[in-house]
Amino acid sequence: MEKITDLPFLFIVGRPRSGTTLLRTLFDAHTQVSVPPECQFIVNLYGKYGKKTNWTKKELAIFFNELQKQWRFDLWKLDNELLMQNLLKLEGHHTYATICKSVYLTYQSVFPKEEIMLLGDKNPGYTIYTRRLLKIFPNARFIHITRDYRDNFVSIKNVDFELPLPALAAQKWVYFFKKIQRDSKKNPSAYMHIRYEDLVNQPEESMKAMCGFAGIAYQPGIFNFHEKKEEVLALYEPGFLEKYHASLLKKINTSRVGLWQKQLTDREVKLLEYTAGTTGIKAGYQLSKTRFSWLTPVQALPGRAIAAALYLATLVVDKLPATIRMNLLSKGPRVLGKLFLRLFNPAKLKEINNLTTKNKTP
Fold first, then answer.
1. pLDDT (tens digit per residue) in 263-296
2. Per-residue confidence at 359, pLDDT binned at 50, 70, 90?
3. Picking from 33-37, 118-122, 262-266, 308-312, which range would have the lowest pLDDT averaged per residue?
4. How far is 103 from 94, CA to CA, in rounded Å?
5. Model pLDDT, residue 304
6. Residue 174 contacts residue 279 (beta carbons within 8 Å)
């Protein structure tokens, strides 16, 4: 039990479509690291269990049941009988951190493992919760990956992740970047910042630096992650990886860098650059436009307003009672996702519903 308590935690954070999944795969390919797929249960369940230090079998069983309701937890493909057994072993005095680590240790990666020396979590949503995560795991470390906000918007548009509004995407990018910068200044040794462009242009140098930061030995074999293509494909619904994470099926490359120069309109670039402004420059991304028309601020206003409303909603939800907040965070992503598709991509929603019905048919 002491070993579980002492296991260090690494969090991979950043905007969605910025390379967090690539980083997650590279670290999970390490023989001494385990990084399950994305699921935000640590923060979602923190309000109810975060300060708990004594656990009965009944409470552990309830915790197990609430885990099953978490969005994307099903992607872990856990042996639930084994998970329950591992949780019940923790009856008695244990922190919430130890309970969470037990769940992570139950995950079985497609990559071969030796002794696990580091647990990892890739979660774009955790970018705004790093201070809370440090309360749970005082020795946690964070790798924050940033991607050119213009390429980020191209990727978001291509996979229907969010409303395809340039100013909305850029404003959220700004919020995330500023939040992680503020938090990292308070505890700089716990944070490492890397750009997606540097990772794909200099993968070995980048991974050596990140492994050193995480406290593990660098293994060149991690770059062979694409050799597990068939095993990885089997974990997801047909077509999912090809649509959302096609790069994980290939060797690491620079093909996704600079796409915005060919795939975005002049208007989209202006809205993105106007909204990101000096923050984008601070992150290392130079403007291609030096002048904006008087219409640009007006055109950017709706997207920026929506981003501000979403940010405010996040703050409000964070102050709600634990049970209400837990339900909202567990069910909210599904509801919002379906609402977005119903309004802006009904064909995609129909495709998902048909696939779900097909998979449930015996």
1. 999 999 999 999 999 999 999 999 997 789 899 9
2. very low
3. 308-312
4. 14
5. 95
6. yes
The model carries a pTM of 0.88
State the DSSP code for 38: P
**Residue 238 and residue 256: Cα distance in Å, rounded?**
23
- β pairing state of 191-195 and 33-34: unpaired
Angle formed at CA 23 by CA 72 and CA 153, multiple of 5 degrees: 75
- Which are the contacts of 42, defined by CB distance < 8 A and separation ≥ 6? 100, 121, 126, 133, 136
| Structural domains of the chain, ranges and CATH numbers in brackets | 2-262+300-360 (3.40.50.300)
Cα–Cα distance between 180 and 247 in angstroms, integer?
A: 26
CB atoms within 10 A of CB 108: 14
DSSP string of 123-180, one letter each residue: -GGGGGGHHHHHHHSTT-EEEEEE--HHHHHHHHHHHT-S---HHHHHHHHHHHHHHH
User: Which of 108-112, 267-271, 288-292, 347-351 shows the lowest mean pLDDT across its residues?
Assistant: 347-351
Cα dihedral: 232, 233, 234, 239 (round 10): 150
The CA distance from 113 to 127, in Å, is 28
Residue 72 is predicted with a pLDDT of: 86
CA pair distance 237, 49, nearest whole angstrom: 32
Tokens (6 digits) for 24? 């997650």
Is the Cβ–Cβ distance between 40 and 168 less than 8 Å?
no
Q: What is the pLDDT of residue 163?
A: 78
